[in-house]
Amino acid sequence: MYDVIIVGGGPIGINCAFEARKRGLSYLVLEKGPIAASIYRYPVHMRFFSTPELLELQGIPMTVAGEKPSRTEVLTYYRRLVLDFQLAYHTYEPVLDVEGEKGRFWVRTSRALYEAARVVLAIGAFARPRMLEVPGEDLPHVHHYYTEAHPYAGCDVLVVGGKNSAVEAALDLYRHGARVTMAVRSPDFRESVKYWLLPDIRNRIAQGQIRAFFSTVVEAIEAEQVRLRTPEGSVTVRADFVLALTGHEPDYAFLERVGVRIQDDPYRTPVYDPETLETNRPGLYLAGVVLGGLRTNQWFIENSRVHAVQIMEHIARSLAPPSPAP
């Protein structure tokens, strides 16, 4: 019987483990992939926008070679936190369901059934790609995640999207020998694109090294080409591969399965108490980026580290034995 089970082992799940241990709570972290799985899925050569101190947990310094940490450096940091501090952390153990009620939950995983008084969902918002919902999206040369450029060298690649992930992938692909076309829904790149990427991508487009269509959506994907709807009409472009880097969303199917109510708003925001982060299901909490629903740019590591403190303080108080009568 655990005091709390933490579902999701990213930075916020790790911070929840630290805060639970500081308060003497028995805990277990259940991660469906490797340590910090969401960061592991980032492009191999990605560099973070945040500085190291904004990604650090528990005042433990992150050592990096430059001003901005790389994916490898960040993964090393979180991996060392889990291993060196011997956190109770299970990898490759996806949670299938949360049954029972406050005080006695049953957390069912691919391996076992655990009992816990409280449950925290720190599942992030990158479990599911936002689909284009167009014919041909299920073809084998269409991908919603980008890892590295090498497999695409010498190929025609269509990158769909105009945010950081799409811009970074397009530049990386171009510099590794791919012929890159971009399809961007908005009239221009988003202001949130990293400041060092914007002049680079604009210069590549201006010089004809990367082809770009703005105010454009994908109409259909075929084996070797893609039909685009542009302001000038329908255009067909060649594509050996399509990278639909249009963002991600929380695992709503899982949230609804475990009883978390979703608000009827444009962002499909989960229902929770802003003070305690407890959901409409008593004893079940949310932490991290999942709180924003489709607004995946609302919560980051740096501004959601405090969620672990809020939640574990509330759990510790609720589980504390009553004071003896005077």
Task: Tell me what the structure shows.
- Helices cover 24% and strands 24% of the residues.
- Strands 1, 2, 3, 4, 5, 6 and 17 form a 7-stranded mixed beta sheet that branches. Strands 8-15-9-10-11 form a 5-stranded parallel beta sheet, covered by helices on one side.
- It has helices spanning 11-22, 37-40, 52-55, 71-84, 164-175, 198-206, 252-257, 301-304, 306-319; strands at residues 2-7, 27-30, 89-90, 95-101, 104-109, 113-121, 128-129, 142-143, 156-160, 179-183, 211-213, 217-221, 225-230, 233-238, 241-244, 248-249, 284-286.
- β10, α6 and β11 (211-213) form a beta-alpha-beta unit.
Helix content: 10-25%
Q: Describe the biggest sheet?
A: 7 strands, mixed
At the third CATH level, what is the topology name of the largest domain?
Answer: FAD/NAD(P)-binding domain
Provide the residue-averaged pLDDT: 95
Let me know the CATH homologous superfamily of the largest domain: FAD/NAD(P)-binding domain
CATH architecture grouping of the largest domain: 3-Layer(bba) Sandwich
Radius of gyration: 22 Å
Share in β-strands = 15-25%
What's the tally of helices? 9
Per CATH, the class of the largest domain reads Alpha Beta
User: How many structural units, i.e. domains?
Assistant: 2
Number of E-type strands: 17
Distance between the termini: 31 Å
**Judging from the principal axes of the Cα atoms, what is the shape?**
elongated
- The string of secondary-structure elements, in order, is EHEHHHEEEEEEEHEHEEEEEEHEHH
Structural class: alpha/beta
The low-pLDDT segments are none
Secondary structure blueprint with pairings:
Layout (H helix, E strand, L loop, with lengths): L1 E6 L3 H12 L4 E4 L6 H4 L11 H4 L15 H14 L4 E2 L4 E7 L2 E6 L3 E9 L6 E2 L12 E2 L12 E5 L3 H12 L3 E5 L14 H9 L4 E3 L3 E5 L3 E6 L2 E6 L2 E4 L3 E2 L2 H6 L26 E3 L14 H4 L1 H14 L7
Parallel strand pairs: 1-2, 1-6, 2-3, 6-17, 8-15, 9-10, 9-15, 10-11
Antiparallel strand pairs: 4-5, 5-6, 7-16, 12-13, 13-14
Helix pairs in contact: 1-9
